[in-house]
Amino acid sequence: MNEIILIKNGELALKGLNRMTFEDILVKNIRRRISAFGNISVRKAQSTIYIEPKDEDYPFDPVLDAMRQVFGIAAFTRALAVEKDMDVILKAAPKYLENRLKNAKTFKVESKRSDKRFPLTSPEISRELGGALLAAYPHLKVDVHHPDEVIMVEIRDYAAYIHGEQIKGAGGMPVGSGGRAAVLISGGIDSPVAAYMMSKRGLELNAVHFASPPYTSPRAELKVKRLLQKVSGYSGTIRLGIVPFTEIQEKIGECCPEEYFTLIMRRFMMKIAERIAKERGCGALITGESVGQVASQTLPALAVTDAVVSMPVLRPVIGMDKDEIIEISRKIDTFKTSIEPYEDCCTVFTPKHPKTRPQLEKVEEAERALNVDELIDRAVEGTTFELIDPQTEL
Ligand code: ATP
Ligand code: MG
Questions:
Q1: CA spacing 20 to 30 A to 362: which of 77, 86, 164, 277?
Q2: 238 pLDDT band (50/70/90 cuts)?
Q3: Average of pLDDT values for 308-331?
Q4: What architecture is domain 3-168?
Q5: Quick one: which atom of ligand 1 is closest to the CA of 294?
């Protein structure tokens, strides 16, 4: 059986301006996402994207799952490609359409013949196929006004296509169409969700993770990579930078008032992430912060953190309740990994009484005890990078 996937213009999540560029990016992203599964062709013709396996024993289910994750697609259609011969169509269609027709009561057939050399007209194709389907499923009735199922056949350049089930896509915008951003990724629940959400708006992702060995374990780093791997199913390859953060945390612990530990640490994170992000051509930072969730996420605390960077900081979960964030993390399958109990560097030097209404001048004064620029230079220099995608061995 030669099953393929069609994405019609109406099934694209994007409309209007820049449509051509978006489609080109989308085609490239689809190719990248499914090329690992084998020999498959992805091409655009006559306002349709065709995804056609070239090998007989092609694993179609993994391709369908992968296609559900590609942003920019509102829906896609499975279809059977057959020879442009009415007898072949009449023979193949009843079996292929079984799932759609066995529980339906009414149907109609719509045909489209863009290859005008095909001997039958569209109404003739519809009539013949309708007859064959009625013969195969005697419980069915034709209803041209409100059918339960509309069966579509197209006669195109290379083949005839019998449309099967339509599947909901991931929506959003093709990754890369909105530029690039760097997500500050912890092992928690929120930041992978934040990364997914911004990727959905078309941003290509870089990631920055702060590790404080021996306070944090290699397992914590592995957890972050596994989280990013889940996100990469949607976003495509993510370049992860792991920043050595121990020295900075220890220096903060030695030299600064305890109530400012977290805030000063977060300011370091933002500055370092911004440096790395700029080197990679990113236009924004992304965090998983949500107002009021913890002491460092009050408005005054967020203002103090933002004061050290000039890049926009995107916080897509800022107005969400934890249970709403968890719902998304379950959907993208990061939740189970996020709740594994490995320490994040944030939990290493936590003050007993953090400031919830910090004043910028006081924080800046506390930071003067540190050689901030030197510490940042060393951390950036020590950062190691790797690429993570759905196929990376972890
Ligand atoms: P959760 O709140 O579920 O523990 P979280 O990822 O939101 O997870 P927080 O401690 O709330 O963790 O941190 C707020 C934000 O700061 C995170 O969303 C993330 O963007 C960033 N962050 C925290 N720890 C790290 C880290 N070790 N490396 C990089 N970014 C971090
Ligand atoms: Mg959080």
A1: 277
A2: very high
A3: 98
A4: 2-Layer Sandwich (3.30)
A5: 11
